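Lab meeting notes turned into a lecture example. A postdoc, R.K., suggested we walk through two folding results consecutively so the class can see how the record format repeats. The first protein's sequence and structure tokens come next.
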Amino acid sequence: MTKQKQTALNSYFTVKQYKLYDWVNINLKKDKLIPEKHQDPIENTEKSKIVSKGHDNIYSLMKPVCPYCNSKKYVKHGFNQKLILIKGMKPFKIRLQRYKCKNCDGYYQTQLDKILKQNSTYNNEIKEYPSIINALQRISLRNISKIIELDWNKRPSPQSIKNWLSKTIQNRNNDNKTDYSGYYNYDEQYVKINGK
């Protein structure tokens, strides 16, 4: 049995280096990444144009504009934390930069509309999941929440699931518009003469 010499200190620092530089956008080999590394939740084309990710998962606007008065004069005013749920990963928190407009004194923050609605913890993928489960098999709302907990590590309330189901059904009904040809057919017609 041959023993291979390996310096523990060197391997320890490489793991620590990944932890320290976890927020930097560097293309590293996937097999060398530590398990705590999570994907950037904003993986779309709008990221480079609108939102940028900084240190400690703080997301800020590239060119902030006040939604109330369209002013470009602002002051950074702290941040709000938001819980992100991604399938197969533990829930993690990100920070959304808040701004105060110098012109109208209005407050606004970075929006992640592609991923999450403004006052929502759950993304659209999770919200559409109960309708898929319900289409395959009719089960209770509590059991649907247990299934979601297995996949996303967070259990939504049965009332939330009921709201999601009704909203997805309503959206599907709105999408089903029928196109009519303009020709109408009828079988019989009765004409009353003198009220008879």
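The second example is placed directly after the first for contrast:
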Amino acid sequence: MAATRRLFKELTDIRLSNCKNFQNIIVDETNLLFWQGLIVPEKAPYDKGAFKIEISFPPEYPFKPPKINFRTKIYHPNVDEKGQVCLPIISAENWKPATKTDQVIQSLIDLVNHPEPEHPLRPPCDPPVTPRDPL
């Protein structure tokens, strides 16, 4: 019950903020534990598209973090092939119950706009260059 009350308030706040980077928010009012929306990045190379995400909140929210999955295919070093994202703010070690969903979404937008290739979830697309013997 506490989770749905808090999520209703957070959803209302996000919708009133008119965030241009998180749009088309779809939430079934009978199940506030599952959200869908579009992430709209501002920085190249991701600024030419919008990416559908799903946010799943556990019944224990805010004491346990939500999970985020990309439903639109995206080649990003911090998103794996299944759409799972490595976002420190929602890791079990870093999660704080005071963290709000808008902060999580902003962290996700920041990660998409500023990839962290030093912490990849997938291998680079280019094979490593190796020196060749002269002809």
